[in-house]
From TrEMBL:
One of its GO terms (molecular function) is protein phosphatase activator activity. GO terms for cellular component: protein phosphatase type 2A complex. It holds the Pfam family B56. SUPFAM superfamilies: ARM repeat (SSF48371). It comes from Brassica napus (Rape). This is Serine/threonine protein phosphatase 2A regulatory subunit.
Amino acid sequence: MFNKIKKLSQKKFNKSDQHNQDNNPTNTNVVRSSRATPTTASPLPNGESQTPAPSPSQTPNHPMFTSTPTLEVLPLLKDVSSSDRPLLFMKKAHMCSCQCDFSDTLIMPREKEIKRQTLLELVDFLHSSSGKVNETMQSELIRMVSANIFRSLPPAHYENTGAPPEGNDPEEEEPYLEPWWPHLQLVYELLLRYVVSSEIEPKTAKKFISHTFVSRLLDLFDSEDPREREYLKTVLHRIYGKFIFHRPFIRCSVYNIFYKFLYETERCIGIGELLEILGSVINGFTVPMREEHRLYLVKAIMPLHKSKSISVYHQQLSYCVVQFVEKDYKLADTVIRGLLKFWPLTNCNKEVLFLGELEEVLDVTEPSEFQHCVVPLFTQIGKCLNSAHFQVAERALFLWNNEHIVGLIAENKDVIFPIIFEALEKNMKGHWNQAVHGLSENVRRMFMEMDNDLFEECEKQYQENEAKTWELLEQREMTWKRLEEAASLVAN
């Protein structure tokens, strides 16, 4: 009885869902909700309610477009004449809009294989030299791609358990793998072949690869399947390279995703892939860099350092930051001060990541820019040298293994020595880790070889400060002792 009720409710749900799609043809958002069976409706790639119809085969009365697509064996494209090939191509593409049930491997095995073989044939057709695709064929192809990849994504792990997003470690979560990836992979491959094809003119393709289409692709970066995100990264990168008029929109959309991650969702899935795309985009920026790019560095990229899940995407983030400094050396001071602004206070693992990124930034920093931030920078490095966590102290001392950084320090030794000397002396006297003790001794010896007179002056100043400190401690103890004696006299 329960199963009958469940089936009836499912039918009603499908009808109401189809009714909502008919009434809202421009709804283009990918919704993260419980996974439902994808519908066979094929939304238009440009989000419009009408499609150009240059051919009679595209008219609404054509049986190919009025009937529900069914999976059946059709002749091979290479076996028909060139005049019949466009219509057969569109029929195959329309047929592949039909979705298969992958909840059970025993359901629809024949239909699944037919669709897989058809998708493989379409991929080979686009890849071959004979793969001439006119505007009508492109329209049906992108319609089929949209019907397959644009779908509701499953809920996140914390949405199912009710736990807050910040309480979940993304590195420990098992990724969700799409059960119908055997078909989805071929659809992505087909889209990639379409985008990179030299036969496809950007002026024609922009009718189908529109802002709406690109926006929906970006929404799919929220997919938990790493295989899908890898394909999305490649496709979006190719779109950015081929369609010049999409570039400002893609950059702005990516930055908006960063804002949403930082200030709303805190869900880091897809951030690494987007940063990887952005790294190659930054590499292509012209010099001098435009003000909008500098603004996005400060407002969207540097704040990514404050996330608790930075370890998931830190490698890509560090690459982007270094690319900015390499493109415009004047941004070094901005980047270093940004790192100091978001420097972690209680997360030692994150602090080690920051020190590694700081070394990469300093490695491409010019001496003129280094002088602007030397005091706050080495004040923070001095704190890291005295960290009780040996990995933090050790990573900070490794900065002196970089020849370029040592050269920068040598040029500004009059400012740096007094800041660092006290931290080195404390490590020599009291750090519990022998490796840190030995590295501190090496850095101290390096300072002595650079400028012995300055070293002796810093040592003398340190001893005077230590003497004053001990004197203050003795005075404080004497004051407390007198207070205790006065209190005992009053009590008696």
